Amino acid sequence: QVYNSTLTWSQYGSLCGPRAWRETNMARVQMLCGHLQGHRVTWSGRFKYVRVTEVDNTAETSVDMLPTFLGDWLRCVYGERYPACNSTSSTTGNNELCQLKSLTRHDCHMK
């Protein structure tokens, strides 16, 4: 269940951020802040740095468990074909997809 919350970024930082870790300890803060799971917040601001720690694509994970021929078929049915990668006038997005295509060795991908 999702709750609308009035929690501000500043409040979150003092309750669950590094300031709180220094005042008590990280384990206690994580237990306390676990109660905020499911709260919907609206914050605006700018990020200086982002690091992806985990990516979860349940559909892709499930397809990877299937035999190769079936997984490849499902990727094309529910996903999209990679672009034709022999063109020299590819866009940046297509170039990235072409690099992925050569690494994954699949004809299609699931977003």
UniProtKB/TrEMBL annotation:
Residues 9-111 form the Wolframin cysteine-rich domain. It comes from the Eukaryota. InterPro entries: Wolframin_Cys-rich (IPR045400), Wolframin_fam (IPR026209). GO terms for biological process: calcium ion homeostasis; endoplasmic reticulum unfolded protein response. It holds the Pfam family WC-rich. GO terms for cellular component: endoplasmic reticulum membrane. PANTHER family: WOLFRAMIN. This is Wolframin cysteine-rich domain-containing protein.
